Amino acid sequence: xxxxxxxxxxxxxxxxxxxxxxxxxxxAAVTTAADLLGWIKNCKKNNLDFLFQLGDLIKGSDxxxxxxxxxxxxxxxxxxxxxxxxxxxxxxALPRKKLLNALGLPAPYYAFTAKGxxxxxxxxxxxxxxxxxxxxxxxxxLEDFLARPEKHDYCGAVGLRQKAxxxxxxxxxxHAGEKVIVICHFPLLPETTDPKHGLLxxxxxxxxxxxxxxxxxxxxxxxxxYGSYALKDELHFVVLPAFVNRLEHPSFSCGTVELENKRxxxxxxxNQIMYDLALH
Length: 280
Description:
This protein has one domain: 4-Layer Sandwich (Purple Acid Phosphatase, chain A, domain 2). The protein has 6 helices and 12 strands. The chain has helices at 26-45, 65-76, 96-103, 136-146, 160-176, 203-211, and strands at 10-15, 50-53, 83-85, 110-114, 117-121, 179-184, 216-221, 228-232, 235-239, 255-260, 263-268, 273-278. A hairpin with a 2-residue loop joins strand 10 (255-260) and strand 11.
């Protein structure tokens, strides 16, 4: 169980790739609901500042996606505090506007500050088969990537408007003296995923933008179900294992992140330290 004793400045719960399904074997569906509710109950006991759900909340089956979202959301809402959601590719089995409404998101990408940290949440499906391109350049980007099957049509890219917004958020954080944590459903480095899962289409462009900022500390992602880590340009890129595969990797199904001025500690569901990372 999670420990209630903490000297961290900021502490939040984190989970990714729940893939909540109502069409699985009944016993498996009941177990998933029970395990998810167990995590929420632990979170309620531990004075967390908020929760992060990093995308692919639902399996996204054609006939049952609305019921999947209803059931998964009803469990998460047992947490009395704020839950910050990230859009994953499976989530977009539902129309984008309906999804945003259901998750209480005013926009698919957003930022917020907490105790000296700025969290920047990216929409990795901005340019994708699930979103009409805003410009001719974005349409060309979409067509170029769709012509390369190895890039996968279930992945996507950060669009022009979002890139401009990202740069402004980083500049604003620098001026405010805030440390930045970037959140994206997709991994941003090839070495933190595999060919089957893929990663953000324009990952190198986004990594270059992040690396140009003195405020950025780390990036937290999901999507690659087995989890990974890499250090690049003094930035920590952490990909968390998927809740849906928790039986395959029992060392992490969900957990907490503790942030101090010079340190980020990620613990698993048993309060064991998975990562203890120095922040510059």
